[in-house]
Specification:
Elements (H helix, E strand, L loop, with lengths): L1 E6 L3 H13 L4 E5 L10 E3 L5 E3 L7 E2 L2 H7 L5 E3 L4 E5 L2 E5 L3 H8 L6 H11 L9 H26 L9 H4 L16 E5 L3 H8 L5 E5 L3 H4 L5 E6 L3 H4 L9 E11 L9 E3 L8 E4 H5 L6 E9 L6 E2 L3 H16 L3 E3 L2 H4 L5 H18 L25 E2 L2
Parallel strand pairs: 1-2, 1-11, 2-10, 7-13, 11-17
Antiparallel strand pairs: 3-4, 5-9, 6-9, 7-8, 10-18, 12-15, 12-16, 13-14, 14-15
Helix pairs in contact: 1-13, 4-5
């Protein structure tokens, strides 16, 4: 009997496994249907020996000291400020749009924030009520810059015109009047010194934690006894798609290794115009690895495949609310993480959500004890393994 079964070995599941094991001294079995831990943050050395991110670039950034302090128990850090360029009209310019971008595109020599703001104001188009992603951008920078930077990229990424998407999508990308070319401005911009997978290995190293890979929840739930469940997978799947499937966008990744030290000037170059892919990322900028070769990844948005991005439309939120109501009525199950709460979270936000959920567990879930010896219940006996599953530890 395990005290806790946790479905999903990404950030949400792994953080909760570690907290429960170390702070409650309870047994945890964490399972994942993939053959590895770390979820979408999984990184590995490819055949050329380049440390790369299997599911596209994952850049850690946060303003939370508490989240950095927590993760610092399991990794050293490398300082890294992500920079993104975009290919626009055969020019390579900084993204997000800043003063350098404007000067390069229009052959201008704007020298101050005030001059840049005046230029953007002259292009902006008033929008009576900002409802969509198109409204957000057009109201700030006008239709021409919207067409060049946002419309094509957003349409490729989501399979929908920005006028059909919630305003939150393009609100995530700022427009600047200074020359700051960093993609993020968070106080903490760092990467795990030895990679994400190594950090996750350290998070899950506690003796109270067992990790089972290549294991689907439906194959495990009825054969491995457990007292409580934490589910970080798709909430609609948990309920057998009772009300229909929640819509997601997926990605297809094409990894290419080149026998040269550097392929492009920065970690990511966006292609918001006619190319089928949305961006190319080069990992050695991000990891700081010194190597004679380099690996890049092309990202192709897709309507099919693993769920990555909940599609932000009102009707999808309405459908999610129906599943959320079912979740609230389900005893002894906690739904945590991106897929279980149908929200797009950055990595630090998922860690914060998991830590908050652990605090709620501490406040509301009593520590149960064995009726035999009065101590906390720990797993014993032989672990039943579904076909194809394997134990990591």
């Amino acid at each position: 009997m395990y005290d806790w079964l946790i479905v999903g070995a990404g950030f949400a599941g792994s953080v909760l496994a570690e907290r429960i094991a170390s702070q409650r001294d309870q047994s945890v079995l964490i399972i994942d249907r993939r053959p590895h831990i770390a979820g979408n943050a999984y990184d590995r050395h490819d055949d050329a020996g380049v440390l790369m991110h299997q599911y596209g670039p994952h850049i850690f950034h946060t303003n939370s000291d508490a989240i950095v302090d927590y993760l610092s128990q399991f990794t050293e850090w490398r300082k890294y400020e992500h920079r993104v360029l975009g290919r626009i009209d055969d020019k390579i310019v900084p993204i997000p749009i800043n003063r350098t971008t404007i000067n390069a595109l229009y052959g201008l020599d704007l020298k101050s924030d005030e001059e840049a703001q005046t230029f953007l104001d002259s292009r902006a188009e008033p929008v009576e009520e900002i409802k969509t992603s198109e409204d957000v951008v057009v109201s700030k920078v006008g239709r021409e810059l919207y067409e060049k930077f946002f419309k094509g990229y957003t349409t490729k990424q989501w399979g929908l015109d920005p006028s059909e998407l919630d305003k939150s999508v393009t609100s995530r990308v700022p427009t600047r009047t200074n020359t700051d070319d960093r993609y993020f401005t968070d106080e903490h911009q760092v990467m795990p010194k030895h990679g994400y997978t190594r950090m996750f290995e350290n998070i899950l190293k506690h003796p109270n934690i067992k990790v089972m890979l290549n294991a689907d929840y439906r194959e495990v739930k009825d054969v491995i006894p457990h007292r409580r469940l934490i589910f970080t997978g798709p909430i609609d799947e948990f309920f057998d798609f009772r009300y229909g499937r929640l819509p997601y966008r997926s990605l297809r990744f094409e990894h290419v290794t080149h026998e040269q030290e550097q392929y492009q000037a920065v970690g990511t170059v966006n292609y918001p115009m006619t190319e089928a892919y949305t961006r190319i990322s080069e990992y050695k900028h991000i990891t700081g690895q010194k190597h004679h070769a380099t690996t890049i990844t092309y990202e192709y948005p897709s309507a099919t495949g693993d769920p990555y991005y909940p599609i932000p439309r009102p009707e999808n939120q309405t459908l999610y609310k129906r599943y959320q109501a079912l979740a609230n009525e389900t005893e002894n199950v906690h739904f945590v993480g991106r897929l279980a709460t149908y929200r797009y979270y950055n990595m630090d936000q998922v860690v914060g959500q998991a830590l908050a959920e652990f605090r709620r567990i501490q406040e509301t879930v009593p520590l149960w004890t064995s009726p035999v010896n009065g101590k906390n219940h720990h797993a014993d006996g032989e672990l039943i393994m579904p076909d194809g599953a394997r134990l990591l530890n």
